[in-house]
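Why should sequence recovery work at all? Because a backbone constrains its sequence more than one might expect. Tight turns favour small or flexible residues, buried strands favour hydrophobic ones, and helices have their own preferences. The token representation captures these environments compactly. In the example below, the structure is given first.
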């Protein structure tokens, strides 16, 4: 397996195929927790960790249990159960060791269970035909891309709050417009990665 291919999978997960800004998965925490930098980065780290763990568990389950026994139709249910268990584990660890972050994330931490980006990366790794190592690199890239989007948008939102805007645009409307502009900026990465790696 080429290192270049793994780097390509990683970088495209972060920049080109950003799940929040390009595929529009995981919008709930993106809009809900991106008001402050520390909350955004904490949520990004938690989601990245859950994505990596979910992929490490769901890929072997898919290949060696579901596919081997002709139970592929149970994929979504099984993956959701695995992700829910992992999120409970993360919540217990944060509550015990980092209570301030646990308190600041509030209701959004259990919502990682229903975060379609986590389920999406687990399913897409299978449908894209990635092997285990490629799936882990893909999940790491998607997780880092999620965290990058969260942190960047936290900075954008802090600037928006300090700038005057028309009354009709305040709140969610200006937030969605800012999110669309940030999303457009990521389209510029589409050809850069291929040229950089010569692929």
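From this structural description, the recovered sequence reads:
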């Amino acid at each position: 397996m080429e290192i270049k291919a793994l780097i390509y999978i990683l970088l495209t997960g972060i920049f080109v195929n950003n799940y929040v800004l390009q595929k529009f998965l995981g919008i709930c925490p993106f809009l809900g927790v991106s008001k402050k930098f520390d909350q955004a980065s904490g949520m990004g780290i938690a989601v990245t960790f859950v994505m990596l763990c979910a992929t490490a568990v769901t890929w072997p389950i898919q290949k060696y249990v579901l596919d081997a026994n002709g139970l592929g139709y149970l994929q979504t249910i099984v993956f959701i159960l695995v992700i829910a268990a992992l999120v409970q584990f993360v919540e217990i660890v944060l509550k015990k060791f980092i209570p301030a972050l646990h308190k600041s994330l509030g209701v959004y931490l259990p919502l990682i269970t229903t975060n379609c980006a986590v389920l999406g990366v687990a399913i897409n790794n299978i449908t894209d035909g990635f092997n285990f190592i490629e799936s882990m690199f893909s999940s790491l890239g998607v997780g880092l891309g999620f965290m990058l989007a969260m942190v960047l948008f936290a900075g954008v939102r802090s600037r928006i709050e300090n700038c005057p805007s028309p009354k009709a645009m305040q709140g969610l409307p200006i937030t969605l417009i800012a999110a669309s502009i940030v999303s457009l900026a990521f389209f510029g990465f589409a050809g850069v990665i291929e040229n950089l790696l010569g692929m």
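A few observations help interpret the result. The first helix runs from residue 3 to 16.
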